[in-house]
Amino acid sequence: MVVSEQKTQSKTLGDWASIAIAKHLQKIVKHEKDVLTDKNPEDLHQMRVGMRRLRSAVTGFSPALKLPKSATEKKIGKIARTLGSLRDLDVLGDALENDYKPSLPAKEQKYLQKALLHLHKQRHSALVEVKETLHSKQYKLLKESLNQWLQQPEYREIAKMPIAEVLPDLLLPNVSKLLLHPGWLVGSDAKIVELGLVEKILVKQGGLLHSLRKETKRIRYQMEVFSDFYGENYASYLEDIKAIQEILGKIQDSNVLTEFLTQSSPDNIRRSIPTLVSQLAKVNYDAWQQWQNLQIKYLSVDIRKGFHIAILEPKLNIIAS
Which pTM does this prediction carry? Predict the structure, then answer.
């Protein structure tokens, strides 16, 4: 039974747990062969997304599921991190080669080329690890056990509950976790936001923003599963979550680039590639200004309360139809 047909017949929490797991497993398997041939980085990206969403589904639906030991959140996460290491290098290389290198002076381009050669060596090692992982017993067991589980799913008692009755309870704990994240307060007391101050804030507390970004990604994946059951208010909050993830992602990518360049050469990068360092700082500054608008918004009591209300108000007529 395909996912679209399942949706029309699904009423319980267990039904929707199975739909989510089946959907993400299909995506993973679909891109597996192309990842192994390493022809297109997009295949790796899609497989990584599938693995991350599978992990989110297993975690989010855990109250309803009895999954095999070979398909635990921890084991899925381990495979996802291996894919992620290679994907991060692809993103890094693409940004350096296509976004930054063309605009640099010839001297800085030459310096950057050395860094890219270092990156290509790292990527080769990461690709070997990905191939070993996808040929591993652990990965094969994960697929086999989930496919078998989907044929005869095993649930906990709560899985029998109608989705209409438990949907808010499923989502609200993660929304609360997101809204209580300390990353929302990073730089919130800064009245004057100049480039130098942004750099200092990110050096000191950039890790918190990266953690917040990962939290937004988790809740985004879960909210997207149930977007058909909600209206415009819910959709608006989901769009904000996507925007926060993307904006904080720009900051994280810029920081990763800076760290890579620093580690790949003994030279001081501010002297060796000042143009590129300046560009990366400008990317962070622009992203920070976008972030502050959303930060101020989500530090508002009314907005936070509205987020909870949006979750509490699914369109029950659609669920019951």
Answer: 0.87
